[in-house]
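Team,

Forwarding the record for the chain on the shared tracking sheet. I've put the sequence and predicted structure together so nobody has to dig through attachments.
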Amino acid sequence: MHPIERLRYLARSSGADQRVLVGETASALRALRMDPAGLVVSCRRIVERHPTSGPLWWLCAHILTAAEPSDTARELAHQLEMDPTPDLLCEAFPEDATVLVVGWPDLAGEALLGRGDVTVLTVDADDQGASFVRRLERSDVVAEIVEPAGLAAAVLAADVVVVEATAASTSELLATRGSRAAASVAYCSEVPVWAVAGRGRCLPDAAFASLVTRVSAVRVPWDAEADVVPLGLATYLATERGVLPLDQVELAPECPLAHELLR
């Protein structure tokens, strides 16, 4: 497949694991031989078509500001593939815990697949909940699907509420629809909220604001593609450094600000 066609296919794709999406995008961009003008246009189109993906913005921002874009693309794809966050999460979940997630989170989902002693409550968001429950059950993990109307009751039945960021700033997360409601109910009910921000998801504030603007460009707010969740609702923050109390760790931008990607 020609690199341009491959990029068009990636731009149209949806629902893929962020690490797979970044790896495929990096490979396709490298195949373009890094023509400067074509590279800028391709990166813009990729982030416009995937406005909730922090890792794709992270990849494109690094490539557009790198002296050797091809080497940078290869290295970043490898770094994301080696993200230790899922393994650290898997070890950190309490024994026999009931864990609530929203939709099908990439990193937390991988972590939960490795824990046969937990019960997973999956809020059916963006039609991904049922698929995730089936995947968990194939790995002998006890799982139940929760309709959005039952979100509050499910939070109260959980020991941990996981909110996974698809992108983040130093103070906010962009997460699957329903995440802010789950985190808010948990915060008010003193149920621990674990915010998950894996490698490549924390962006400069201006870049994050651009993502939020794109996601919020809808007729009514409740049609937005994702939720903006204040980090202050979390009790713990899970990153590649481990799962730590929020007051002991902070997020920092992981990429430069590429003005070419801003609206």
